UniProtKB/TrEMBL annotation:
Protein name listed in UniProt: Transcriptional regulator
Species this chain originates from: Acuticoccus sediminis
InterPro entries: Cro/C1-type_HTH, Lambda_DNA-bd_dom_sf
Gene Ontology molecular function terms on file: DNA binding
Length: 286
């Protein structure tokens, strides 16, 4: 069902991109320059065989240039122009006792249905890569988490990514994985065998899901980031413990996308090497 929905969204986007291009009266090359992409990328987006949406900032640029809403571009609404309703550009949602509560999973699902490439800087490392034992340990102090539902969500995400129906980028501090391997900090009571098995499985999953999943490791000695997730051109979230700061203004979402790009540039381990680094950490677990 999710694959069919995503294909429908991509088809609507392709058709409506052609509509706004025709209205612009620009040549394809000029249009591509105006929205910040190259001519070949534009041609790929218009190709009938294409099954991917552009990056969030490109969607926002196309919508801004045409004076239409991103939701209309994606075929999610028949309302072409952005609504007149005033939406608070920043909202604070309390009661976030867990970074993966029902709201977070709902935002994930909405982004996935629309076919967005999600970008995340997780609190430790991505939850959908964690084993049931690790999630049970990490979230033991959050009894409101439905462990079974969370594990099902993780397995479903992996299955969809194997089919190239979903894609995600994650930036994680190298030191977070080193601490996990050594069993220090929050992981000090987690048995070595569980940590070793988790790292081994994570290495295999990252290798299997690449490039649907791209994983960058940055160095905390060089840069720092609070946990945040960019769900779409119109939604991004920062988690600060018990609070979600939700951003819906385009400029705020773009700022977080730029910060994510900064983390990618600062990465000391690139996606094609991450699997081997994680496997090496698994071998070091004692």
């Amino acid at each position: 069902m999710l694959i069919a929905q995503r294909r429908a969204v991509v088809k609507s986007f392709r058709e409506r991109l052609q509509v706004v291009m025709d209205r612009s009266a620009l040549t394809p090359s000029a249009y591509a320059r105006t929205v910040g992409i190259d001519r070949s990328t534009l041609a790929q987006l218009l190709a009938p065989a294409n099954e991917r949406l552009p990056r969030a900032e490109t969607l926002a640029a196309i919508a801004t240039l045409a004076g239409v809403s991103v939701d209309w571009l994606l075929g999610l609404t028949s309302q072409e122009r952005p609504g007149a309703e005033v939406i608070e550009p920043v909202s604070v949602e309390g009661g976030a006792h867990s970074p993966i509560d029902d709201r977070f999973l709902r935002w994930y699902a909405e982004a996935e249905t629309a076919g967005y490439r999600i970008r995340s800087v997780p609190r430790s490392f991505p939850d959908f890569l964690k084993s049931a034992e690790v999630m049970r340990y990490e979230y033991a102090q959050w009894p409101e988490i439905d462990e079974a539902a969370t594990v099902r969500w993780a397995m479903e995400r992996r299955a969809q990514m194997r089919q190239s129906a979903l894609s995600q980028e994650s930036c994680v501090p190298l030191q977070a994985l080193e601490a996990f391997a050594r069993g220090t900090g929050q992981w000090q009571d987690l048995p070595a065998e569980i940590r070793r098995q988790q790292l081994g499985e994570m290495s295999e999953i990252c290798r299997e899901l690449y490039p649907s999943l791209t994983f960058h490791l940055y160095d905390l000695k060089q840069t720092y980031s609070a946990p945040f997730t960019v769900f779409s051109p119109q939604r991004a979230m920062i988690y600060i413990g018990a609070l979600f700061f939700m951003f819906t203004a385009t400029e705020h979402v773009r700022a977080l996308n730029r910060r994510f790009d900064d983390l990618i540039r600062a990465a000391v381990v690139q996606p094609n090497d991450v699997c081997d680094v994680i496997a090496g950490l698994a071998d070091e677990v004692r």
